[in-house]
Specification:
Layout lengths: L2 H14 L4 H13 L6 H6 L15 H14 L9 H18 L4 H5 L4 H28 L1
């Protein structure tokens, strides 16, 4: 199993274990591409779940979790450092997300599903977003 598929599977497993979309994606990506374990990774993603703070009216938590992981991987720690790579990869993730799902809005993504199906869709979407981001990271690593 390659890292892309492993990222998908880990996000599904994290979601199944009780983490929400943003946490599942960020944890899976950081496990596959980050260094070491940091308990703050899940904490940092917690408020992004269900369309930011459970409002289901803003950006998909899975997408937000992916962007958070990119910040952890490529973000800056001082204002004099460049943040171009993190921004470029975040824009690419957003573009591929919109290309696939036509929106980044949590509520719009879930509108066609009933309450019971929403949780299954979020789990599936978490795996898909982790896979998309893993593809981007693999492409970046080949540069």
């Amino acid at each position: 199993m390659d890292r892309i598929e492993q990222s998908r599977e880990r996000a599904l497993q994290y979601h199944q274990s009780g983490f929400h979309c943003a946490e599942a994606v960020s944890l899976a990506i950081m496990e596959m591409y980050g260094q070491g374990e940091e308990p703050d990774r899940a904490r940092a993603a917690s408020a992004f779940g269900a369309g930011l703070g459970r409002c289901k009216q803003d950006v998909c938590g899975g997408l937000a979790g992916g962007v958070l992981a990119l910040g952890l991987l490529y973000g800056r720690t001082r204002p004099d450092q460049d943040w171009g790579k993190a921004a470029r990869l975040a824009a690419e993730l957003r573009n591929r997300f919109v290309q696939r799902y036509l929106t980044t809005n949590c509520g719009s993504l879930l509108a066609v599903f009933g309450p019971q199906e929403n949780m299954m869709r979020c789990k599936q979407l978490s795996g898909e977003v982790a896979g998309i981001l893993a593809e981007i990271l693999e492409e970046e690593n080949r540069r």
